Amino acid sequence: xxxxxxxxxxxxxxxxxxxxxxxxxxxxxxxxxxxxxxxxxxxxxxxxxxxxxxxxxxxxxxxxxxxxxxxxxxxxxxxxxxxxxxxxxxxxxxxxxxxxxxxxxxxxxxxxxxxxxxxxxxxxxxxxxxxxxxxxxxxxxxxxxxxxxxxxxxxxxxxxxxxxxxxxxxxxxxxxxxxxxxxxxxxxxxxxxxxxxxxxxxxxxxxxxxxxxxxxxxxxxxxxxxxxxxxxxxxxxxxxxxxxxxxxxxxxxxxxxxxxxxxxxxxxxxxxxxxxxxxxxxxxxxxxxxxxxxxxxxxxxxxxxxxxxxxxxxxxxxxxxxxxxxxxxxxxxxxxxxxxxxxxxxxxxxxxxxxxxxxxxxxxxxxxxxxxxxxxxxxxxxxxxxxxxxxxxxxxxxxxxxxxxxxxxxxxxxxxx
Length: 417
Description:
- The chain crosses the membrane at residues 27-47, 292-314, 335-362, 382-404.
- The chain is an alpha+beta fold.
- It has 14 helices and eleven strands.
- The longest helix is centred in the last third of the chain and has 44 residues, at 275-318.
């Protein structure tokens, strides 16, 4: 055992000295591995960070929450022309479902509007995602109030001119002033600020409650027409936790089909989207992105591996005379093998470490510039980087190392002279 430990130590020392004596060659070999490890770990870190941020945003929502609307949140076999002819989901649909479907914990009607400009005493915040929605959304999305309150059922039904601001929206519009009770303008109309939400962090695609504002849907319905040419809407439904969700969805679909007058042989002209389906879609997209990242980065790793193999063959050629002398003095084949194999592994390992350091620096800088979206270099990805770099060195160095260990000492000395 001690013989092998001494063999490993001597081979490792010899490899380090060889790398130190050929600095330019070492640098060029390191560059290929560094770029390969950097590219693949950077891609995996970015995808993992995106996945984590999306899952954190969805974690506050019940995965069985349903969105009844004319749109599908995922792939569907229904042709585009047919979907375009589906009727809009309107406030009357919301009232029907609220009054006729049992086992609903919370329900809301939401209008998918665009961004609006919010104004207060000469200051304007542009592009705010103002969400017209009934008060039930407060329980569905598990919103938390920092100051003030959310609008109640009476204000929601009457379409009161009130607004609840997200944390960042309030800060951008009022700085450090207390916004509660202040009057702002949106949609060209006056709205009273009655609440500010607690800060929650990044959201899907940058859409966080911090960047939003909420107004009663019936307030917007006063001046925005519904119907086929109006703003699209949806009924958001959160079933009670102790119900059979499949049975609940079946009852909901059956009653809504009757409400819309659909015959038994007619297909649905609406979609019931569940957040669990959205989570599955996100997992599928993340998996695809990981696959693409691996494919692209594999080429970089391949180039790095070929670079190391090429350098090792050159190194064997240059040190043929030295190999012959070592063998003539009694060096075993395995000593020569480990000597060159360790050189390749150390070269690749150092390149991997440099690549990981560059990824860490990149993720740290990007996290500082992207606000709530945090790029994370996980321990798993770091271990993967170390494993990949070691494997590249092992695979790239094994053939040159074997060829060096099999050299005949007499021929090696003669060739090197």
